[in-house]
Amino acid sequence: MSVQTAFDEGGTTAETRRFPPGFLWGAATAAYQVEGSTTADGRTPSIWDTFSATPGRVAGGDTGEPAADHYRRMPQDVALMRELGLGAYRFSLSWPRVRPDGGPENPAGLDFYDRLVDELLAAGITPVATLYHWDLPQKLEDLGGWTARGTAHRFADYAESAARRLGDRVPVWSTLNEPWCSAFLGYGTGVHAPGRTSGRDALAAAHHLLLAHGLGMQALRAHAPSAASGITVNLYPVFAADPESAADQDAARRIDGLQNRLFLDPVLRGRYPEDVLADVAEYGMAEHIQDGDLAVISAPVDFVGVNFYRDWCVSAVDTGDFDPGWPGSERVTFRSRGLPVTASGWEVRAAGLTECLVEADRRYPGMAWYVNENGAAYDDTLVDGTVDDAERLAYLRDHVVAAHAAIEAGVDLRGYFYWSFLDNFEWAHGYAHRFGLVHVDYATQARTPKSSARWYSRLARANAVPER
């Protein structure tokens, strides 16, 4: 794909990288992170309500109330998306709104998403829905959560409710967002809800999440047959600290197995990777895999969404730390390379996005891909009504260029969603980390598009990368 010349908003020419026609430019959020109104209209507690209300779990004692108050301010937020020229909005539905406590449908909860979808369509913005972005009803966690097989079947009921109501108007669906985080951060390290610290629980959760994906795909095919449906995973390229070290290479294999292949191999190849099953044999994952499960999990998907934030550099050197979030690889060491970092402490290397997409496409050829999340937290400051977030703008541009490089390398990449549209509740970091294109003053809920938002607006409208 060649470099072309286009006009920027100032009327001057700028060298640009042009994307394929119809490429989808959007921004993403998640229900618990932006909606607030956690007790409104029949919504019941999720595991994140319980987790964030537990002292010491979330920075600053923050919770998802009021978050960015999106539940009440949705029409204004959609109007702002339209003003910025976004082509798509990726949002998640709140399971505790749609089926409170995992039980019967809640019409009032579904009504909100009806209004959201209609508002987006009226604004010319494509709705892109995610069914599960980590807000499991607390009642289901009390019954075992994702370690219990029944949770996957309750998810299927929820998916059917959402697809019946919205499937005629939502053209793109993800079943799950980042099941690695749900399983290994929620049930392994305990830094995410529900806060368990068990390698056995993490692996049981991983399988049941994948089973839920397969059952959710059945519901989507039945009730949203014309939609493109798939799954969204967070993929991290994994490198050996010493490429000449067989031990470091094996450490990289283990982490790649748990982070990436444990989820994509069942979905796209219909089997778990044998080396990973061997690595985790002592944790009992195999006992949860029943006849027919992999056939359900591997039903064809239309795309895979990739969330990319960083890559891993690993070593077999044992520092003495034990991490239950990596069962079978607890003593692998994650190494810093001295690269620039975001406010989250994550190393920045945009080329990793190209490598991530190219490697995924090599392993699973013929698949369509979306970048469903990519973004960075920085310490933004609102000054005289503006936020000059130069670091984020540079991060965003470099990663968009990296996505373009993947397309040039032959990857069928169909869209890019920046994380996130709004500053929001950033899980265990509370409100301390700002990822948004739009600054949110949490005291007043005032919205202020940042410099990065204005740049992204030019990109989306031109379908080409502005050089400045």
TrEMBL record:
<feature type="binding site">
    <location>
        <position position="133"/>
    </location>
    <ligand>
        <name>substrate</name>
    </ligand>
</feature>
<dbReference type="GO" id="GO:0005829">
    <property type="term" value="C:cytosol"/>
</dbReference>
<feature type="binding site">
    <location>
        <position position="177"/>
    </location>
    <ligand>
        <name>substrate</name>
    </ligand>
</feature>
<keyword id="KW-0119">Carbohydrate metabolism</keyword>
<keyword id="KW-0326">Glycosidase</keyword>
<feature type="active site" description="Nucleophile">
    <location>
        <position position="373"/>
    </location>
</feature>
<protein>
    <recommendedName>
        <fullName>Beta-glucosidase</fullName>
        <ecNumber>3.2.1.21</ecNumber>
    </recommendedName>
</protein>
<dbReference type="InterPro" id="IPR017736">
    <property type="entry name" value="Glyco_hydro_1_beta-glucosidase"/>
</dbReference>
<feature type="region of interest" description="Disordered">
    <location>
        <begin position="36"/>
        <end position="69"/>
    </location>
</feature>
<dbReference type="Pfam" id="PF00232">
    <property type="entry name" value="Glyco_hydro_1"/>
</dbReference>
<feature type="binding site">
    <location>
        <begin position="426"/>
        <end position="427"/>
    </location>
    <ligand>
        <name>substrate</name>
    </ligand>
</feature>
<feature type="binding site">
    <location>
        <position position="419"/>
    </location>
    <ligand>
        <name>substrate</name>
    </ligand>
</feature>
<keyword id="KW-0378">Hydrolase</keyword>
<comment type="similarity">
    <text>Belongs to the glycosyl hydrolase 1 family.</text>
</comment>
<dbReference type="InterPro" id="IPR017853">
    <property type="entry name" value="GH"/>
</dbReference>
<dbReference type="InterPro" id="IPR033132">
    <property type="entry name" value="GH_1_N_CS"/>
</dbReference>
<feature type="binding site">
    <location>
        <position position="309"/>
    </location>
    <ligand>
        <name>substrate</name>
    </ligand>
</feature>
<feature type="active site" description="Proton donor">
    <location>
        <position position="178"/>
    </location>
</feature>
<keyword id="KW-0136">Cellulose degradation</keyword>
<dbReference type="GO" id="GO:0030245">
    <property type="term" value="P:cellulose catabolic process"/>
</dbReference>
<dbReference type="GO" id="GO:0008422">
    <property type="term" value="F:beta-glucosidase activity"/>
</dbReference>
<dbReference type="InterPro" id="IPR001360">
    <property type="entry name" value="Glyco_hydro_1"/>
</dbReference>
<feature type="binding site">
    <location>
        <position position="33"/>
    </location>
    <ligand>
        <name>substrate</name>
    </ligand>
</feature>
<keyword id="KW-0624">Polysaccharide degradation</keyword>
<feature type="compositionally biased region" description="Polar residues">
    <location>
        <begin position="36"/>
        <end position="53"/>
    </location>
</feature>
